[in-house]
Design goal:
InterPro entries: HgmA_C, HgmA_N, Homogentis_dOase, RmlC-like_jellyroll, RmlC_Cupin_sf
CATH class of the largest domain: Mainly Beta
Bound molecules: 2-(3,6-dihydroxyphenyl)acetic acid, fe (ii) ion
Pathway: Amino-acid degradation; L-phenylalanine degradation; acetoacetate and fumarate from L-phenylalanine: step 4/6
Structural class: mainly beta
Largest sheet: 9 strands, antiparallel
CATH topology of the largest domain: Jelly Rolls
CATH superfamily of the largest domain: Jelly Rolls
Radius of gyration: 23 Å
GO biological process, one term: L-phenylalanine catabolic process
Strand order of the largest sheet: 1-16-20-13-10-15-8-7-28
Protein name: Homogentisate 1,2-dioxygenase
Number of domains: 2
CATH architecture of the largest domain: Sandwich
Cofactor: Fe cation
Number of helices: 2
Helix content: under 10%
Length: 439
């Protein structure tokens, strides 16, 4: 297969034609009486028609058949651990840590949709307010099926195994240490190459944006040109019994049709799927003293209507130099009015060298105290403060949300990965209080 091509930019107005059908995009209008090549015009709206211009998102798809040619949707029970039921368990404010989530057994055949497991979440897709955090644990490619969420945008964080994501807009390949965003309503199919695991943040409220940079200036953190959107590529295939799987109000539905939904010959617009390589993140940090809040590491944010408060931020902890003088350099001890769900893509996380493992996770709920374990505290308190390259070969991330998250039954019990001894990592923190320590 030839190398995939991408369009570069975040939030841009793009246009793309499959080179096999030049001039497939109508010129100067969206709805010609007959479209070039006899294509159907279909608008995919990502915001209300009347959203302000700077927020307005829509794309026009020129496709062989309109999406409406399908049989009725019926309930589908492909993934029994996908849920929006936040009342399955009693509330639990404890610090939670999960060992790496199990991959499906090699003799099984589990695709991306069947492998979706909801770990925690809050809110309601019906009132378009909330989030769900899922993991996907799969080992087989989707076959004659496509998936979309009618509930929210999906920010996909591969941890193990590359994803080849065929979308209506074209194909993107996303490997660990890259992320992909497939927005509300966009249909996609995932092909994998073996045991595959990753995390998904689904936001019900709106769309992800790049954070404002304030005094940082016009450049830095995640730069817009590093976001890549696939190019148009169509399949003209009759496929009897092709399944369109729809996540709608937290439940799965399936509708059959007799053709590939990946039949878009050309498209234009600013409502698109995209990917981003986390290695491209330009880190800004303190070069004098003290520990900055982790908001400096925000890759993408889904804002709420309250100024400065995110429904959810996607934050990473990339390799970087640590140079602060007379400073306790690791994360400070804290209690936060936001919920912090963390995962590990590669390596280890500086505040917890042991126990927090790639493919595992942690949740520090609203106002639940947390911070470095005793080992980290001791070495950072008494180590020499030379410039140090930290987190080399590692990548931890955080989904930080202003919502108070509930853990599902699968997350709390069925997965059997909760580490009941997690609290112990703080119990041996020493009492240093003494008249002898004077600074
Ligand atoms: O809890 C965590 O490990 C995440 C985190 C990192 C940091 O550098 C500062 C605050 C914070 O919540
Ligand atoms: Fe934290």
């Amino acid at each position: 297969m030839s190398e995939l091509k991408y369009l570069s930019g975040f939030g841009s107005e793009f246009s793309s034609e499959d080179p096999r059908r030049p001039n497939a995009l109508p010129v100067g209008q969206n709805n010609p009486q007959i479209c070039p090549y006899g294509l159907y015009a279909e608008q995919l709206s990502g915001t209300a028609f009347t959203a302000p211009r700077h927020d307005n998102k829509r794309s026009w798809l020129y496709r062989i058949r309109p999406s409406v040619i399908h049989k009725p949707f019926k309930r589908f029970d492909a993934s029994k651990y996908l849920t929006h039921n936040w009342d399955e368990q009693e509330p639990d404010p404890n610090q939670s840590r999960w060992l790496p989530f199990d991959l499906p057994p090699p003799e099984s055949r589990v695709d991306f949709v069947a492998g979706l497991h909801t770990v925690c979440g809050a809110g309601d897709a019906r009132s378009r307010h909330g989030i769900a955090i899922h993991v996907y644990l799969c080992n087989a490619s989707m076959d004659k099926s496509a998936f979309y969420s009618s509930d929210g945008d999906l920010l996909i964080v591969p941890q193990k195994g590359k994803l080849r994501i065929t979308t209506e807009f074209g194909i993107m390949e996303v490997a660990p240490n890259e992320i992909a965003v497939v927005q509300l309503g966009m249909r996609f199919a995932v092909a994998v190459e073996g045991p595959t695991r990753g995390y998904i943040l689904e936001v019900f409220d709106g769309h992800f944006k790049l954070p404002d940079l304030g005094p940082i200036g016009a450049n830095g953190l995640a730069n817009p040109r590093d976001f890549l959107t696939p190019v148009a590529r169509y399949h003209d295939e009759e496929i009897p019994g092709f399944k369109i799987i729809n996540k709608y109000q937290g439940a799965l539905f399936v509708a059959e049709q007799n053709h590939s939904p990946f039949d878009v010959v050309a498209w234009h617009g600013n409502y698109v799927p995209y990917k981003y390589d986390l290695n491209r993140f330009m880190v800004i940090n303190a070069v004098t003293f003290d520990h900055c809040d982790p908001s400096i590491f925000t890759v993408l944010t889904c804002p709420s209507t309250k100024p400065g408060v995110a429904i959810a931020d996607f934050v990473i902890f990339p390799p970087r130099w640590s140079v602060q003088e007379h400073t306790f350099r690791p994360p400070y001890y804290h209690r936060n009015c936001m919920s912090e769900f963390m995962g590990l893509i590669l390596g280890s996380y500086e505040a917890k060298e042991g126990g927090f493992l790639p493919g595992g996770a942690s949740l520090h709920s609203m106002m639940t105290p947390h911070g470095p374990d005793d080992k980290c505290f001791n070495s950072a308190s008494f180590g020499e403060l030379i410039p140090q390259k930290i987190a080399v070969g590692t990548q931890a991330f955080m989904f930080e949300s202003s919502l108070s998250l509930a853990i599902t039954k699968w997350g709390a019990e069925t997965c059997q990965k909760l580490d009941a001894k997690y609290y112990e990592c703080w119990q041996k923190l020493p009492k240093l209080f003494s008249d002898k320590i004077k600074i």
